[in-house]
Amino acid sequence: MNLPIVRAIACACAFTAAGIEAAPLPSAVGGGAPSVQQLTSESILSQDKLHDKAAQEWGLTSKEYERYQEVMQGPRGVYSPGLDPLTALGIEARSDSERRRFAELQVQAERQRVDRELAYQRAYDEAYQRLFPGINAIEISASPSTRAGSGSGPALEGNGRMALFVKDDCLPCIDQVKRLQASQTPFDLYFVGSQNDDERIRRWAILAGVDPSSVKSRLITLNHDQGRWIRLGLGGSLPAAVTQVNGSWRRQ
């Protein structure tokens, strides 16, 4: 073999090897693509911020919110999917003091929610009257006349429909109306303590999200209680959904 050619080939190989070893690797600091470790760290930091924000919105500590997430991954999440943190933690409380704390937080949170909804309701009422003066957004059903000589007020009519008794300042009452309306269940609503004030029932119905078209079609009727609830004698707290079975009214 020609010795000069061999030497030339050896020099070329050595130069190439040296060049490869000397080539610098891309640097993330110098503007290259971020490393997997950096992306993971940023993702964890972002999740922590969202976690802390959610806990703060519910008035909880970070550990309490973690406990909520653990609770909802267990049987409670199956029994009650989508349950809010305060209710879930209160139901699954590990001590009386925990239960009291979450109950107080929930009362405060719901009071704030109601205040905001009432403020919006007032703004809605003002806007409606300004745009449609003299026209009621939701009509109140006409009450039947009291039978002469009865002196006891109108009786509850057994028309095969559900009768729902509600009152003011009753969050469960609003929730019950929303559930029935979502399921398209026909019902007659009786407002206990309305003092025959149509506007009072109308404002409450707007707050509860009653659809005016459902009232117009009589899928839902809005009525003054006029003592019907007391005369039924069923007792218990409101809301009360009652139906007539074999001539007798029973709570559902």
From TrEMBL:
Signal in keyword set: yes
Region forming the signal peptide: 1-22
Keyword Signal: yes
Keywords: Signal
Name listed for the protein in its UniProt record: TIGR03759 family integrating conjugative element protein
